[in-house]
Each structure stands twice: as structure tokens, then as C-alpha cells.
């Protein structure tokens, strides 16, 4: 188990370098001033917005997705003591989110032509990746809550990095819907928040990416060293 955690710790370093390192390098070479609080990550992957270096973050994020795959099985093994079904659902959601992330890196942002019948396929894949990863994190929080007497630190860390970004995205999207259906109610609030970082999708994208990384770090460093699976429990009781 110690050897496995050492391997995962190395993978965490590779994920940080390949994901955040290549994004930071590309942001420094961005033709215009790139402010992560207001610009979405897709701007760095766009051949239109970043014609010379868009390949760098695309390759880095795809590699980060590959490095994340072993964590799905690791999470399932540690969460199945709380609920084998929810643990499998969490691992499956993580795998689906990682696959969608890799596909989003391969499909460059474009708006002029439809691809596979979808006009904004990159955006669709990006949002699908975020949704699946969020579902996997929520399932993980539920399993940690069931075992919170033994995993209090894990439960509170996961809950913090999962629920806060989701709450912020939910509130911002709700305000956008209110501007369409009840503009008289929402316009004063939107006008007050329009120049705030909380209004911009870029801020929540970067916050969500950091939240996923912290979630994985907590999974490695805050989980018990030797979890007992339900299969082992049944064997010992028999």
C-alpha cells in the first residue's frame, strides 16, 4: 500500500506539471494579456486565439488525463467499504470525465463548422468532463460521509473542494437564467456582479480544475493506509 501511494504521489506531480505547468507556460506566451480570472481555459487551446502555442496545453491536459486514470480504481477500492455500488459509480464517473477531457483536448475549439453533427463539440466535451468529474466527486463525498467517524479529514476536505465550486457555478447559472426570464429581478444583481470574478466562467473553470487536483491529493494522503473491503469483511466473518 505504501508503494502504491508513492506511485500515486508521483502521478500527482506529473498531473500538476502537465496540466497547470503547460497552461501557465501557454498563458505567458498568449498573444494577448491572459487573465485566468476572466478568460476560459479553452482560449489557450484555441488555434484562433493562441495560434502558435495552442498545441502545448492540449498535449499537457491530455497527458494529465492519462495520469489521472489510475486514481479511478484507487478511489473505488477505498470507497467500496462504504458502498460498493456508489464506489463503482464514482469510479465510472471519473473515467467518463477523464475520457471526455482527453477528447476535448483532441477537438480544438471551433465555432464555424459542425463536427459529428455538433457545432460546439469542444464545449460539449468540456462541460461533459466537468459534469462527470463533479458527479464522481459527489459520490466520493457521500461515501466519505458514511465513514466520517474514521475519515473526518477526508470528508471535510472533499466537501469543501466539491461543494463550493458547484455552489458558485449554480448561482451564476441561475442568475443567467433569471436575466432571460425575469430581467427586472436579476438585472440589478447582474450589474453589481458583472465586474466581479465570480461572474466569469473562467474563474470557475480554474477553480474547478484546482478543486479536482486537491480532491485527488486528499484521496492519496488522507485515506487510511489499508482499507478493508466488504469482500474481505465477509471472508473474515465467515
Textual characterization of the structure:
- 74% of the residues lie in helices and 0% in strands.
- With 238 residues, it is mainly alpha-helical.
- The chain has one domain.
- Helix 1 runs antiparallel to helix 3, helix 3 (55-79) runs antiparallel to helix 4 (84-106) and helix 4 runs antiparallel to helix 5 (121-146).
- It is globular and about 50 Å long.
- 34% of the residues are buried.
As a percent range, the share of strand residues is under 5%
Major sheet details: none
Uncertain segments are: 227-238
Distance between the termini: 25 Å
Helical segment count: 9
Quick take:
With 238 residues, the protein is mostly helical. 74% of the residues lie in helices and 0% in strands. It is built from 9 helices and no strands.
Features:
mainly alpha, 0% strand
How are the SSEs ordered, and which strands pair?
Elements: H1 2-28, H2 42-45, H3 55-79, H4 84-106, H5 121-146, H6 152-181, H7 183-193, H8 201-221, H9 230-237
Helix pairs in contact: 1-3, 1-8, 3-4, 4-5, 5-6, 6-7, 6-8
Amino acid at each position: 500500500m505504501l508503494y502504491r501511494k508513492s506511485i500515486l504521489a508521483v502521478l500527482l506531480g506529473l498531473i500538476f506539471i502537465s496540466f497547470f505547468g503547460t497552461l501557465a507556460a501557454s498563458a505567458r506566451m498568449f498573444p494577448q494579456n491572459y487573465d485566468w480570472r476572466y478568460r476560459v481555459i479553452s482560449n489557450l487551446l484555441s488555434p484562433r486565439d493562441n495560434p502558435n502555442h495552442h498545441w502545448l496545453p492540449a498535449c499537457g491536459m491530455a497527458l494529465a488525463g492519462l495520469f489521472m486514470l489510475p486514481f479511478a480504481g484507487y478511489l473505488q477500492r477505498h470507497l467500496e467499504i462504504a458502498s460498493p455500488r456508489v464506489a463503482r459509480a464514482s469510479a465510472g464517473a471519473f473515467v467518463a470525465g477523464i475520457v471526455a477531457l482527453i477528447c476535448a483536448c483532441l477537438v480544438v475549439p471551433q465555432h464555424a463548422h459542425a463536427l459529428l453533427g455538433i457545432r460546439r463539440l469542444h464545449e460539449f466535451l468540456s462541460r461533459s468532463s466537468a459534469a462527470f468529474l463533479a458527479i464522481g466527486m459527489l459520490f466520493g463525498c457521500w461515501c466519505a460521509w458514511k465513514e466520517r467517524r474514521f475519515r473526518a479529514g477526508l470528508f471535510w476536505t472533499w466537501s469543501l473542494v466539491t461543494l463550493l465550486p458547484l455552489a458558485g457555478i449554480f448561482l451564476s447559472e441561475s442568475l443567467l437564467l433569471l436575466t432571460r426570464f425575469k430581467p427586472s429581478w436579476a438585472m440589478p444583481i447582474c450589474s453589481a456582479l458583472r465586474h466581479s470574478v465570480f461572474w466569469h466562467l473562467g474563474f470557475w473553470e480554474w477553480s474547478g480544475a484546482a478543486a479536482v487536483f486537491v480532491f485527488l491529493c486528499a484521496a492519496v494522503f488522507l485515506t487510511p493506509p489499508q482499507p478493508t473491503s466488504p469482500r474481505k469483511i465477509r471472508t473474515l466473518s465467515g
